[in-house]
Each structure stands twice: as C-alpha cells, then as structure tokens.
Amino acid sequence: MFRSRWTRYFHFKKNKRGGFLMVRKKFLVLMLAGLFLLLVACSNDEGKGKQPELDQEALDNVNKSDFPIVKDEIALKMFTAKSQVNANEDWNDLLVWNTYEDQTNIDVEWTEQVTMDGLEEKRNLALASGTLPDAFFAANISNLDLYKYGQQGTFLELNELIDEYAPNLKKFMEENPSVKKGMTFPDGKIYSMPALRDQDFLSVRIGARPWINENWLDKLGMKVPETTDDLYAYLKAVKEEDPNGNGKADEIPYGGVNMDHLIGWVRGAYGLGANGVGDFDKDPNGDGLRFIPTSDGYKEMLEYLNKLYSEELIEQNIFSIEWGQFMANAAEGKYGLTTFYNPKKTFGGVEGDNYTNASALKGPNGDQMYSNVVSPLFNNGAFVITKENPNPAAAVRWMDHFYSDEGAKLMYMGVEGKTFEEENGEFKYVDEIENSEEKNQLISKYLPWVGVNPPGVVKKKYFIGSEASEESLKAAEDIKPYVPEDLWAEFTYTEDENKLLSSKGADIEKYVKEMRDKFISGATPLSEWDNYVKTIEDMGLEEYMTIQEDAYKRYEEAE
C-alpha cells in the first residue's frame, strides 16, 4: 500500500516511541503552518491602506506651473460618467479634450465611458474586480466609498499632492472653509477632488426657487407674498376668484414636481435649516445639534402645509405627479405659484413670461430665512486617483486647471472661435450652437459637461443653464439677504458610523419622509405627533444624533 513520506515517517516513530514524538511533530507542523498564516495576515494588514511611494522619475517629469504639465508625454487611463445626451460622443476625440491634450502633454484614454443609468454597476464592478483606471472622472463616488477605498489604499490620499500641485483648488479651499471641511475624512485625509459651485454664483446653489404668476397677482390686486399669511391669502384667492377669467375653477394655486421644493422654500419661515439642507442644524436652544423633524418648528410647518393641502391650495397629486403632467399643466398656464427653475426657460412660450420671483417668507414667529441653499461643495467624489496611476502629481495638476477661470471657460464654453465668442466681456456660443433647436446635443459634440456635473468649478459667466438667466440671477439677489452664513457641507463618517447610518439611520430617514407626507396630506392626523416622535426615539434617534454630533465636531476641527 502506498504511503506518503510523512506517513511512513510517523509510523516508524510510533513503533519506536509509542506515538509521543509523532504527536509532537504533528503539533510542530501545525504550529509552523499557523505561524505562516499569521505572518501572511500581518503582511496583508501592513499593506492595507498603505499609500504607494511616488516615483521620483515621474515627479521630475512634472512642471509645477504653466503648460505643459509634463515635459515628456504620458498617457492616463480614465473612467468617466456620461449623460444620455452625449452617450454617442467618443471622448477620445472631443474638441475640449484634444485641445487640453495639446496644452498639457497628457494623453487621456477614456477607457470606460458609462451613461448614468449604468454608472453605479460599472463603477462598482471596476472597484470589486481590481481592474482599475488611473482615475475616476465624474463618477459620483459616495463619501462611504471614498473612505472605504481610501483606507484600503485603492484611492490615493491627496492632502500633500493638493498642497503642492493644485494651487487653484487650494485657494478655493482657503477661501471657502466649508469645502475643505467637507473634503476631509475622519482620519484627516482627503481622497478626492470635488465638483464645486462658485461662492459668488448663488443662483446655482439655490436650485429651484419660488415663481408666482404676475398676471394673476395684478388681477387679484395683490403683491408678491412676503409672509406665510400672505402666501395663504394669495393661494386662496387663486382658488376662489377665477384669476384666469375663463369662468371655471381650473386654476391650480400651487403646483410642483414634488413636495421637497415647497418645503425647501417654506421651512426657513419656521426657523429651520440655519446651516443649509439636511435634517439637522445647530440647536437654537443649546450647544449641540437639533434633529429638525422632531422639533416644534417642524411640527408648526407641517400644520401650515396641511392647512394648504386640506383646502386644496396645493396640487392634490403632488406626492405622485409625473414630470410630463407637471410640464403640461405649466404650459397651459394653470399654476398660480410653483417652486422650480426659471419658467421663462423651462415652461416656454407666453406662459413662461408671466412669472416673477418671490423671496424668503416671514413666518408666524418672525423667522425669515432662505435655508434651502447648498455649500459650494457640490459633489465630493467627482475625481479620484487610484493606486494604479503612474504619475499622481501630473493627474492632480491636470484636474486642478478646471478650478481656475481659464479651466472653467474651457470646460463650459470650449474653444474661442470654434464653440464660443467673447464680446465686451460677455461669452456666448457660436451661432451654430446658440441658434440650434437641439442646443445641448450640439454642445455635447464639442464639450463634455452636459448632464455630467464634472469635477472643477462652475462659474456664472461661463454657464448657460437656466440658473444663469437674467430672471434667475435677479431671484437669487432678492433671496441673498436671507441666506444663512454658516452653510455646512455634507459630513464624513467612520466605517462604524456608516454602518449604523446605513441601517438605523436609513430607517429613521425613511420613516420621517413617509410621515411628513402623511401629516401634510392628512392621511395621519397631527394629533399623532407624540407617537411619531416616540417612534423615532425608539428607532435609535439618540445613537443617530450622537454620530452626527461626533461628525460635526470633526468637521469643525478640520483644518
């Protein structure tokens, strides 16, 4: 019978010494095997999260200022998101990228060009498989994944690289403290370069804002509402006094694509959201944070909105309305008031011209604030450099250009004489683009920004969206005096904190949203408020808010 070398050896020893030596040898083998596995595990732990050393030869190839970025040409492989509008355009032969390649001496190979509907799947596949690009561009990587893969060493930490090779982003961070705070993770590291909105471009940081039918105001003999009582009076008059003059009660006092936009406007009148968007702000009665959805001011706001809804002053299907239905109602001139983007640009025709802007409302307790405004930090995970990148310093310099004035112009206007013209300091697309009925599609043949929200900075003078229109800019100026000063960027969290936020936190946030709509619609009476608060507390509110408090302390301490 065949016996292995080890079997024969142990059998022999057993006959000589009665098995003791065999057991000892077996124990020694197991011990050595365990030690080997332990050494491997320790080696893996030591490698986990370790940042690769920067190659000196690659660094020597980088010019720290001016163009070209590198002395000898290099190639970088990038993964990018694209919108459906530019899905058929190959970014490897796009005017903006070809122009930038000539300036920088860096040939970007857009190896993955993924439309938004497949972005999450393709991005996660790349991360899970380990088949990484040199950088992810406009890939909308969450803070959770930035921290996770940054800790693992998959994404490079960028603190020193930004400090040395990104003067434009560094300047923006210094001028806007909330940006650096929002970019910094609990370990003190930065793992990405963000998409930013210029501090002075308030209009784009407001987004949807209130628009009121000016013709109907005139017919009703009313002024633009300045208080919550004024708003109620106007909406009631629209419902009851036939301002369109057709003898039918077909006017819709307030309509929108969702309830969020209306709440975003009204909540400041109840003293809510003094630090911008989100479910928590500084506690006005203490040193810590306040969970807005269980506060007295929030309840009072819900009572007001329930009153509007129950009297049919709010479109009754607002919780489920389709985009197409909203736009059809708008085109037919049915709305007395909406919270949306410039109707002149979005509704079109005569009806779009009938609207004027409203500003922050004063509430029943004297509060007057427009708190639905975001920090300049729009998307933290917009540009990420991976461990595969052969020259991270060059990649940082490549990206940093788009935080400059010239870079923003290249991204959003393109190349002078080919895609845009400048006259008296004003920029506009060439007639071929400007006069096209399919403007965005034509822009996408030359420029990459449409529908993508790319990393870099959006500046007012180079942006052609509805937020940059004359009407939208005026609306923003009227709102500006009521915008809070201390607007927070999104907080960052540790791995353990994220686990709880993804479970208990997600359950609380879902419940809050469901109950908000039920209270407003009357499906659940506000007499159930105490039960609602108790339910949230039982779901783990104290633990949830402890995490937010800890995250806020780190946010404030970030330097």
Give a structural overview.
The protein contains 25 helices and 14 strands. With 559 residues, it is α/β, with parallel strands linked by helices. The chain folds into three domains: 10-37, no CATH class; 62-199 and 377-458, Periplasmic binding protein-like II (D-Maltodextrin-Binding Protein, domain 2, 3-Layer(aba) Sandwich), CATH 3.40.190; 207-375 and 485-559, D-Maltodextrin-Binding Protein, domain 2 (3-Layer(aba) Sandwich). A six-stranded mixed sheet has the order 2-1-3-11-4-14. A four-stranded mixed sheet has the order 6-9-5-10. It has a two-stranded antiparallel sheet with strand order 7-8. Helix 4 (95-104) links the parallel strand 1 and strand 2 (106-115). Helix 1 (5-17) packs across helix 2 (20-47). The termini are far apart. The model is unreliable at 1-47 (pLDDT under 50).
Concise overview:
By secondary structure, the protein is of the alpha/beta class. The chain is built from 25 helices and 14 strands. It folds into three domains: 28 residues, no CATH class; 220 residues, D-Maltodextrin-Binding Protein, domain 2; 244 residues, D-Maltodextrin-Binding Protein, domain 2 (3-Layer(aba) Sandwich).
Features:
D-Maltodextrin-Binding Protein, domain 2, 25 helices, 6-stranded mixed beta sheet, 3 domains, 559 residues, 4-stranded mixed beta sheet, 14 strands, globular
Structural class assignment:
alpha/beta
| CATH superfamily membership of the largest domain | Periplasmic binding protein-like II
Number of strands: 14
The major β-sheet equals: 6 strands, mixed
Q: What name is given to the CATH topology of the largest domain?
A: D-Maltodextrin-Binding Protein, domain 2
The CATH architecture of the largest domain comes to 3-Layer(aba) Sandwich
If helices are DSSP runs of H or I spanning 4 or more residues, what is the number of helices? 25
The percentage of residues in β strands lies in 5-15%
Question: So what's the CATH class of the largest domain?
Answer: Alpha Beta
User: How many domains is the backbone divided into?
Assistant: 3
How far from one another are the termini?
A: 73 Å
Model regions low in confidence, pLDDT < 50 over at least 5 residues: 1-47
Q: Give Rg in angstroms.
A: 29 Å
How are the strands of the largest sheet arranged?
2-1-3-11-4-14
Average pLDDT, all residues: 91
Q: How does the overall form come out from the CA principal axes? A: globular
Helix content: 40-55%
Protein name: Extracellular solute-binding protein
Organism: Virgibacillus halodenitrificans
InterPro entries: Bact_solute-bd_prot1 (IPR050490)
